[in-house]
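Side project, low priority. Logging it here so it doesn't get lost.
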Amino acid sequence: MGDASTFEIAVQFHQAGQVDRAELLYRRVIAQAPEHGDALFLLSMVVLDSDRLQEGCALLQRAVRAAPDNAFFLSSLGGVYGRLGRNREALGVLLMAIARKPDFTEAVFNLALTLEGLGELSAAGECYARALELEPSLSQAAERLAIVKAGQSAVVSGVKAPRRSESELNPAELFSALGATLRIAGAQDHAAAWFRAALRLDPEAAYVHTALGAIDAEASCFDEAIVHFRRALEIDENFHDARGYLDTALNEAGRYAETEAVYRAAVALRPDDPVSHSVLLFNMQFWPHVSAADILAEARVWNERHARALSAQALPNQNERSPERRLRIGYVSPDFKTHVLSQNTIPVLQNHDHRQFEIYCYSSVNQPSPETETIRACADVWREVADLDDAALAELIRRDQIDILVDITMHMIGRRLLAYARRPAPIQICWLAYPGTTGLETMDYRLSDPFLDPADQSTLDRSAYSEETLRLPDSFWCYDPLTDVPQVSPLPAIAKGRITFGCLNHFRKVNDGVLRLWARVLSAVPESRLLLLAPEGSVRDRVRALFDEAGVKPERIEFVARGSRLEYLSQYQEIDICLDTSPYNGHTTSLDALWMGVPTVTLVGETVVGRAGLCQAMNLGLPELIATTRDQYVQAASSLASDLEQLSGLRQTLRARLQQSPLMDGARFAKNLESLYRDVWRRFCAERPA
């Protein structure tokens, strides 16, 4: 009889109450398979039922070693530790059990018993209450909760004092640690429950307010998140994590005046922090009152404060100065993954000429995706650099003898500009993150196109950018939707009998001036509707109120929330015409709309991020989508809405038009880009011969 059948027979005896026979057979299985976790666990149950605590504990320890992720084993071991008075060990394994199975009532109940045994009545009460949330019929938890509450009343009245069998136990921190573990595991609701329990025990815990706010923000509950972050800063004004989260939440909620104040306060409080300063710089581009000169001035301050001193670490470049040799091109990014930038990097990397260019990718991706593997396959050399600081990254790039180093993050999240400050490559270029400037003295060039930066505006370069501008002949973008679904739908207006305008841009781009402009469009097109991507709560109330003030009934506004990429693209099937934002246009979002057959009416802005719509419309041969004044914008939108037959025809041909345009011609874009790479390399060799 094999081990498996012996184990099954032992279980049958156990279930039948013949525990002596079951114990004998469990021991036989374990003798033949010492790491048989289930046999060890069930034998421990038999042993514990006969009050042999020490032996049962030893068996459970072996079971946990055999299966360290089994929440049942961990919870049982925690319960036995509690019965043996080994409370610190009990707490540890019970927290591990809950982290592995957040809704495991037995583990939560055992944790409550352990805390009660330590005299931590308030914390125990929280756990009993949590156990009842998970299993309302658990009478033992209800009974113990009543007893604990009575004990707490006695403590308050001075009849008795709490007993601590362990020193320095902080239940609030314990619950917070459990919440943090669950949050990392992705169990956000369970994490929030434990953070709330921690907060009830310690209402002045700034880090717990911040953690709860972060969970709310991830769920797009920005009103609630802002309350938590503000409370954290009231408790500790120097709690910088809360300040960082607060500025993001305010930004998401479109509360621009408050956002700017928080960003500037963060920089003032931590003037030596390059990250806070980068966040300010990136977000300045979304604010209507900020000019290109303002952005450049702040970018130069960033460079002077955080980067200039690092340029002294630059070593003489030893790369061979041969103008026609094969060049090493390095791309640095934290976004070689499922990310909007991948829709533009993949078609370029897939079309590089590897005979002339050796492609290095320096990836800081912590959670790879299918896009990561697609990009990796495009590289001649792939470097994982997430664990390297900026100095180490710069040294690695220098050792690789990269000729042209391309930054595609700039001041966005995951930025590595302080590696570029050390000049690890002789030529350094920024591209794609957004058309703008880094302010970095060691960034030689920025990529653009004739529409974002007209060649006849030579003064613009000096007033807006610290880098020299290199113009690609067609477009700054090279788009691939990375999906062929969903299909373009028929024009919604034909079935609905009315026009639906829409904007699925990030709401940070939607300021009050844009909303008022859209209200004019809706007024000009009777019965039309607006479909708007916006977070729930006060944001939507503010939008409705603004439209109401402009004479547009709030019921003409429909809101949608963020969803998966497929859900997002499917929303375009409900939209006839997209309305662009200003001063920061839609970029890849507008390309997504075009892919779904939806034209975007755009207003040309004064800063470069406000000329994306111009570039895209001109590359498609659709100048009628472009407005240079607000009156023209209203006219363009209403004119497009007035001819459903023409609009329907445009919808059915727009995807093919996009595919045949330079905006989706990866081979053409890569060839043009490589031509610029070769030109600047030849210039470098001529100016600095070996």
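Brief comment: Residues 311-471 form a domain with the Rossmann fold fold (CATH 3.40.50.11380).
Revisit when time allows.
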